[in-house]
Amino acid sequence: xxxxxxxxxxxxxxxxxxxxxxxxxxxxxxxxxxxxxxxxxxxxxxxxxxxxxxxxxxxxxxxxxxxxxxxxxxxxxxxxxxxxxxxxxxxxxxxxxxxxxxxxxxxxxxxxxxxxxxxxxxxxxxxxxxxxxxxxxxxxxxxxxxxxxxxxxxxxxxxxxxxxxxxxxxxxxxxxxxxxxxxxxxxxxxxxxxxxxxxxxxxxxxxxxxxxxxxxxxxxxxxxxxxxxxxxxxxxxxxxxxxxxxxxxxxxxxxxxxxxxxxxxxxxxxxxxxxxxxxxxxxxxxxxxxxxxxxxxxxxxxxxxxxxxxxxxxxxxxxxxxxxxxxxxxxxxx
Length: 334
Prior knowledge:
Elements: H1 5-10, E1 38-51, E2 54-62, E3 71-72, E4 80-84, E5 90-95, H2 102-105, E6 109-114, E7 121-122, E8 131-137, E9 143-150, E10 155-162, E11 169-170, E12 178-183, E13 190-194, E14 205-209, E15 217-220, E16 226-231, E17 237-242, E18 250-255, E19 262-264, E20 277-283, E21 289-295, E22 301-306, E23 313-318, E24 323-324, E25 328-331
Antiparallel strand pairs: 1-2, 1-24, 1-25, 2-3, 4-5, 5-6, 6-7, 8-9, 9-10, 10-11, 12-13, 13-14, 14-15, 16-17, 17-18, 18-19, 20-21, 21-22, 22-23
């Protein structure tokens, strides 16, 4: 039997096969996709009850060399939402690592480290008044866009900051919930999710805006809940998750443009995070494959699919004992 397109794309990856009963986790959206040679796929993992002090976990990455083991980048179970820089040398992520109770009260912060897990430094200040998450690097690596939730006012808006923690800017305002920002590969615009057209309905659409927050335009809209956008490395397509066509959550792709056709890529049968859910796509740097967060059965998994819908779904990690977070497919460091 000849190998599939996905098998050819994954031949350099070590793929463990594990399967034990899993518990519930909410997945975060993917960060920006930058062009290059496909490198590691990073994601968060939490193993409940692993130590006497509570769950174990952190950020992990599959290296792009066959036979190498899974790399553990950090050892704090509150680390999540990894995002690679365009050169593959840095990873931004959110965490309440300096305060174990902060995650329940707000207080998540943005951190940056080298892609091997060394040199962790805090970018946004810790405070119980807000929680920062879902970071995404600008293409030049100088700024990070992220969402900030304020529990007191129950508002979520998009901010950006320089990687040294200075130059904080608020990009969205108002009563809408604006979240899940991701830079386009050329840095000229930011895709994000908002309920500004459908407040109170439970629905959301995907919009674009300039890096200064101006010129907001709709990219993907409809009666369903559209979320978790990721722009392809060449900047012409957008992958996203949606419950369109019913209640099942699936991954879709469309060319950027109002009249372009939407293509479903996954065989989802249930809403997230129930069984049969597929969501939170992350483009491979070559634009040929997409990593997704999935729950094809009772266990959580990272899966890889063909960007054109061919090849079915290849399970990349399936560890029923762990909570798995959304994947981020980075370029090979250069």
